[in-house]
Amino acid sequence: MLSCAWHDIRRELGMEIIEEHTVMEYSKVNKKCEKCGHGEAIYYTRQMRSADKGKTTFYTCTGYGHPSQEN
Ligand SMILES: [Zn+2]
């Protein structure tokens, strides 16, 4: 379902290497989805392979699974 979006995100961030899901944190937050307006999202952070990039926070809305991210 999300494979295309995830592929795009990984390409964009240079994360091709990371295939295994190295989930650091994982929880729900009240965050409005920019695409469908859903008010709740799952978020989790991943440590980037390139250390200078630090952590990126990923959000997936629980309505339709729209991904977004914050650096
Ligand atoms: Zn959404």
From TrEMBL:
Residue ranges annotated for the TFIIS-type domain, each copy included: 29-71
Main location: nucleus
GO CC term (a single one): RNA polymerase I complex
UniProt keyword terms in alphabetical order: DNA-directed RNA polymerase, Metal-binding, Nucleus, Transcription, Zinc, Zinc-finger
InterPro entries, alphabetized: Rpa12/Rpb9/Rpc10/TFS, Zn_ribbon_RPA12_C, Znf_TFIIS
GO molecular function, one term: nucleic acid binding
Keyword Nucleus among UniProt keywords: yes
Short name of one Pfam family: Zn_ribbon_TFIIS
SMART domains per the UniProt record, alphabetical: ZnF_C2C2
Gene Ontology BP terms: termination of RNA polymerase I transcription
Protein's cellular compartments: Nucleus, Nucleolus
Name under which the protein is recorded: DNA-directed RNA polymerase I subunit RPA12
Protein's organism: Glycine max
Organism ancestry: Eukaryota, Viridiplantae, Streptophyta, Embryophyta, Tracheophyta
